[in-house]
Design brief:
The protein is elongated. The chain is mainly α.
């Protein structure tokens, strides 16, 4: 990944953010498949007052793209090589699990008794968030050198 480091140093910030959005979408699709298997997407849709699995996908992918852009804005200086990118992606996924799945989502949905409660479903969500962060980081790292050549 030495070439990724060299290439990413010449890529503009808007291009990096676009790569982060793409990485977020790839991670979001991977995590979304797990969420669909767990039957969680209607709960995601409930964040905007729906119970539709399709709406859940849209909300989830919107958030995935947004969080991919934020990841790049926060960490682009340190994600030029596979090792640091993977570690930061895993940490980022774990952070969104704590912030999003354990705090914001139950609070938003009026489930105050579930805030920071951890059971089997939350551990499955944790694994999904780690998967998201890893896919986000690796996809970003693979896309950036290709975007630089354009």
């Amino acid at each position: 990944m030495e070439n990724a480091q060299a290439a990413s140093s010449t890529v503009s910030l808007p291009t990096r953010v676009a790569a982060g959005i793409a990485g977020g979408l790839v991670g979001g699709v991977g995590f979304g498949i797990l969420m669909q298997a767990m039957g969680m997407l209607p709960m995601v849709a409930d964040l905007i007052g729906s119970d539709s699995t399709g709406v859940g996908w849209l909300v989830h992918l919107f958030n995935s793209a947004l969080f991919g852009a934020i990841f790049v804005l926060l960490f682009f200086r340190w994600i030029g090589d596979l090792g640091p990118a993977a570690v930061l992606g895993l940490i980022y996924g774990a952070a969104w699990w704590l912030i999003g799945a354990l705090w914001i989502m139950p609070a938003w949905l009026g489930m105050s008794e579930m805030i920071f409660e951890i059971g089997d479903a939350q551990w499955q969500s944790f694994v999904g968030h780690l998967f998201y962060g890893l896919l986000l980081a690796v996809t970003y790292l693979l896309i950036v050198p290709r975007m630089e050549r354009r």
